[in-house]
Amino acid sequence: MEQLLDVSRYLDAITGTDSGDSSSAEESLRGAARRNEEFLREVFSSPSLGALLAPALPPCTADIKPLLLEEPAPHTRTRLSVRPSGKTLAELAGALEEANAALERLRAE
């Protein structure tokens, strides 16, 4: 979830537009260059940069891992006692859709 939020924040920073009252294109370009430098400095100094470049997601969440380690009885199915709430799934789905839409807009440019 944190990685998705970081990607979303980075996409917002990339696609952000200049809302200042620049009187010339040169000033606007200088402002954009300064913002890009600040953004790149933030990205490369981020403690989560390694996780963004090479995510190492666990094969299962912490609440499921104990269930997988238990030896089930023969011919029985293990039922998960804890399921993600619909709200959490909806939030994650919404964040994923927003990130996907931002990526599509960038691809179109």
From TrEMBL:
A GO term, aspect molecular function: microtubule minus-end binding
InterPro entries registered for this protein in UniProt: Haus7-like (IPR029711)
GO biological process, one term: spindle assembly
Domain of life, per lineage: Eukaryota
Any GO CC annotation of this UniProt entry: HAUS complex
Transmembrane segments: none
Xref: PANTHER family: HAUS AUGMIN-LIKE COMPLEX SUBUNIT 7 (PTHR14352)
Protein name: HAUS augmin like complex subunit 7
Taxonomy of the source species: Eukaryota, Metazoa, Chordata, Craniata, Vertebrata
